[in-house]
């Protein structure tokens, strides 16, 4: 390490200072401000005791969310609002949907009004109380003072608990949607809307959504929609198509299941009915209890059958004996009457 004093010594010991290179001297002088020197502050002894030095630091507890200054006087969050937030908390589980939580949170906070208090500030203050479990730990791990606006908070929250892979899976479910075999029209429509609601950033236009749903229906429901549209449903405007679908989904008594439509469209004769009965009986046997239970049930049924036959046979014999005894009694009376005649 070169110090200022050593550089001066080198300059004094130069045998021919007049022949030295001036550019080289200037370059050495330019480096002098960067020479390492001990600061007077560094050389000062630390006056703190060992107990103070070993004490745990009390810094670094700044929150990730920065709430803007509130100009209103005597403003405070009521305990009822905090209790409302904790009544339906978001835990960050796999089944939890962050979009649903944001919708619920916006719906609650939109009813909260304070003079001179921005609604965004109320949201930033209340949102941590709506989290629990893994979601709360996520917010606690965010860098201090890294969330400045409500939009920043929503963006980070959605990206954390709704990764791109989940978006891809839901987009595939929407594109490949099909009405189930035993699903009614309104059940299929509700399930389709649930998929759209679960992924609001799916990117599909309204035209694409309605076309996908129509092509996913069974022929009977497609014919029903075409009839309601007065022809071909796809020749109507998207808003009209949506109204027709919503009106049809409200008629819940008309189930129009695919299996029912198939049965109604064909002539079912007695032989096919017997075949269906046989298949139903076979299915019931396949879905019955285990073999041991069936065996016990069979033994019990056999015993009860034998007991019933025995009782019936005894009743018949008793009735027969009673009839025979009655006939004999009548015969004795007749004999008695014959003997009494003159």
From TrEMBL:
Residues 1-42 are annotated as: Disordered. Residues 1-14 have a biased composition (Polar residues). It comes from the Eukaryota. Keywords: Nucleotidyltransferase, RNA-directed DNA polymerase, Transferase. It comes from Tanacetum coccineum. The lineage of its organism: Eukaryota, Viridiplantae, Streptophyta, Embryophyta, Tracheophyta. It holds the Pfam family Retrotrans_gag. Signal peptide: none annotated. Residues 126-219 form the Retrotransposon gag domain. InterPro entries: Retrotrans_gag_dom. This is Reverse transcriptase domain-containing protein. Residues 22-31 have a biased composition (Basic residues). GO terms for molecular function: RNA-directed DNA polymerase activity.
